[in-house]
Amino acid sequence: MTAETSQTLDRGLRVLKLLADTDHGLTVTELSTKLGVNRTVVYRLLATLEQHALVRRDLGGRARVGLGVLRLGRQVHPLVREAALPALRSLAEDIGATAHLTLVDGADALAVAVVEPSWTDYHVAYRAGFRHPLDRGAAGKAILAARAKPMAECGYTLTHGELEAGASGAAAPLLGVTGVEGSVGVVMLADAVPERVGPRVVDAAREVAEALQ
């Protein structure tokens, strides 16, 4: 902690991070141990966060992330979209295919930013807001692959015809971005994805990750 920072705010943010990392919530005692502060401090932190609906406590007294976090989260997608657009435009124009940024939304993959190429005679119509299961399509499968592999081993994922007949996709996961789980990819009308597309998608995913850091 430095003189310019708030110890109370720091502790409150640490509480939210600890709660976000568990599916079962945490007791006051557990939070006290993890934070290294006494239970009275934890009670005050939780009471304040509850007033803003950022924390809720169940009947057993376990604290969990509250629904107020969702209101804050709604502002995340526009910020992420804005940061990703330059890399997506470059990818779409370079490859001549529809480029997209996809984020995890529960059990689904949700397209939050889409850029179509300006010079092609035809391309796949793909819209922001389109969602599909994580285990279908290149965008979702790239995210699942990143969950299963060390960061150094993650490359790109190719699929064909899983979301739209006659369409192929390539996607690479976003890596090293705290709090954001997603992928960058392209979708094209082709029986197979050209060899150069996979590495280009990896580069675009890296550019987006850097823009978000």
TrEMBL record:
CDD domains assigned to the protein according to its UniProt record, in alphabetical order: HTH_ARSR
Keywords, ordered alphabetically: DNA-binding, Transcription, Transcription regulation
SMART domains assigned: HTH_ICLR (SM00346)
UniProt xrefs under InterPro entries: ArsR-like_HTH (IPR011991), GAF-like_dom_sf (IPR029016), HTH_MetabolicPath_Reg (IPR050707), Tscrpt_reg_IclR_C (IPR014757), Tscrpt_reg_IclR_N (IPR005471), WH-like_DNA-bd_sf (IPR036388), WH_DNA-bd_sf (IPR036390)
The keyword Protease is assigned to this record: no
UniProt-listed Pfam families: HTH_IclR, IclR_C
Positions of the IclR-ED domain: 68-213
Domain HTH iclR-type: 6-67
PROSITE patterns: HTH_ICLR, ICLR_ED
Keyword Nucleus: no
PANTHER family: HELIX-TURN-HELIX TRANSCRIPTIONAL REGULATOR, ICLR FAMILY, HTH-TYPE TRANSCRIPTIONAL REPRESSOR ALLR
Protein name: Helix-turn-helix domain-containing protein
